[in-house]
Amino acid sequence: MAYPTVSAAYGLKPINRLGGTTFAGAVRHIKIASGFASNIFNGDLVSVAATGVVEKFTGTTAGSPVGVFVGCAFTNPTTKQPLPSQYWPAGTVASDAVAYVVDDPSVLFQVVSTDGSSDVAAAARAVIGSNMSLIQGAGDTDTGNSGVSVLGSSTGTTNTLPIRVVDVVPETATGADAFVELIVKINIHQYNNTTGV
Prior knowledge:
Strand content: 25-35%
Number of domains: 2
Number of strands: 13
Order of helices and strands: EEEEEEEEEEEEE
Helix content: under 10%
Structural class: mainly beta
Shape: globular
Oligomer: single chain
């Protein structure tokens, strides 16, 4: 059976939990500030600000995200109707906006390995156990999907790197030791960061 070619980053997609237990789709609803000025795409990492609202996590080599954004809901400012959305459109004025965030520190995510230009770039199996930095690629307002990926050449032991590699995805490998998708977890989860917000 042929598997599809991975041609671009798509953000972080929840797949299961550490230990192999099923991810049941649980999310936490966290308020988004009305008028928040950045797009937040499905698959983007997010953090909780000191004001208690969610915001896009923009770090690449350090930081403590709280989880991954998988959609939101708000009252459409034009139609005044409730609107579920794949992504948060920058600058939307809605006092009731909430983000759906996969915030369980034990959840594992599938993500694409890329180079510094966000082009798909395979990593070797030896990346398992390493920490990695992020590439904050552009999201897509047509699909609502993220452009975030991990920098395949950034593997290391630096404890501040935001991503830990748990495994590789053999099904979409482009060679015997060339894996374009990785299974990762948040390295320093905001809930586990002892310094708090």
